[in-house]
Structure formats: C-alpha cells, structure tokens
Amino acid sequence: MSIMSSIISRILVVSVLTVCISYFGRASYLVALILILCLGLLGEIITGGESMPGQRDNPDGDEIHPFKLMAILAFGIVTLILLASYFPSLTEFNAYS
C-alpha cells in the first residue's frame, strides 16, 4: 500500500468516526476528534512496545517510531484543547441538531 493511500484511508476512518461519535453521542465534532486522538494515544501507549524497530509488528523498522507517534498524538490533543479554549464556539458544531 502506498503512503498516500494509507494517509487517505486514515483520514477517511477518522472522519467517519468523528461524525458517528458526534451524531450518536451528541458531542461536538471537536470533542469527538479529541476523544479519537486520546483513544489512539492510549492504544499506542498500551501496544507501543510491539511497534518498536526490530519487534514483532515492525521487524524491518520501516514504520514510524512509537515515541514519535505518541508525541504527534499528544501534540494534536493539546492543540485541539487549546483551540477549544480560545474559540469556545467551535464546541457547538455537531452532527446532531
């Protein structure tokens, strides 16, 4: 699978999950996205050791290092929380009306 199709499929999955969480959970899009990133970070903390270079899930070391992925997810969470605190009107947009 090429890198571009992998990125597109991840964006599509996160978008669909965000809309579903927003609609069924009656949460805003921003809160749903923060929840998805938090779940991704939790999952990476739990299974991060298996993705280390040379380990079972990453024997060749081709994938991104788990610590880099955790840092990217944490940065995204903090950025979205700061965005929500500076612009509180963003927390009012949801799929359920």
Features:
elongated, 97 residues, 0% strand, mainly alpha
Could you describe the 3D structure shown?
The protein has helices at about 5-25, 30-45, 65-85. The chain is an all-alpha fold. It has one domain (about 5-90). Helix 1 (about 5-25) crosses helix 2 and helix 2 runs antiparallel to helix 3 (about 65-85). The mean pLDDT is about 85.
Q: What average pLDDT do the residues reach?
A: 87
Number of domains: 1
Proportion in β-strands: under 5%
Q: What assembly state would you assign to the polypeptide chains in this entry?
A: single chain
Largest sheet: none
Termini separation comes to 38 Å
Overall 3D form: elongated
What is the number of E strands? Answer: 0
List the secondary-structure elements in sequence, H or E: HHH
Q: Tally the helices.
A: 3
Supply the helix-strand structural class. Answer: mainly alpha
C-alpha Rg (nearest Å): 15 Å
Query: What helical percentage do the residues reach?
Result: 55-70%
Low-confidence stretches: none
